[in-house]
Amino acid sequence: MPALVLARHRPTLGDLLRGAPLALKAGVALLALVLVAAAAWLVLRRADPPGQTSYVVREPVAFNLRAGDVLVRRPARGDELLHLERRRGDLFLQSFAVAPLALAPYRGEAGGVLPIAADREIEALARRWPEFELVQEGKTRINEVPGYAIVFQARLGERRLFGREVLLPEPRPGARGGARLLILATPAAGVSRATEVGVRGVTKTPYRTFRFGVTPP
What CA–CA distance (Å, rounded) separates 209 from 212? Predict the structure, then answer.
């Protein structure tokens, strides 16, 4: 009977174990099963959950996140790196966008300069939307990365608009770069107040899964 394994590929693991104690053979077989199971677990872990899509941006800021498929990727606006949006026909419902964050030089922790950067963002938001009203602002965390959140409401045409902007520096000492997350929603999306933006509904998933780097958890 022809050899199933060419001579140049020998010795195989079977050759090496031939004549070995039964306990050693059982141990090797168990290890092989563990390795196969671990590989399968990694593949499943990296697969997107049903109804969700993973997004990875590599530069100028590397980050990744997941979002429900009802949030459709649209062309980026301005300096945005990623823009996801949900509409009902032509009616805007909600969106999730990521843009670069650039901080001025500072000493110590980034938390000390974030309120100053937030003041400039609040002024920009007030110029962008009529009837802008700041609801709350303060420190926040996304996956253990400290940042600063601005929660607001305004008008989008004749409709109420709710929003949350998060300034999130990269988690390394002295970092001046990072990401600005801007989440917008209207009452038609099932959001009734500004503090619910990013906390409930389809924008919750990208908000909670946002991470710096290109490797998902």
Answer: 10
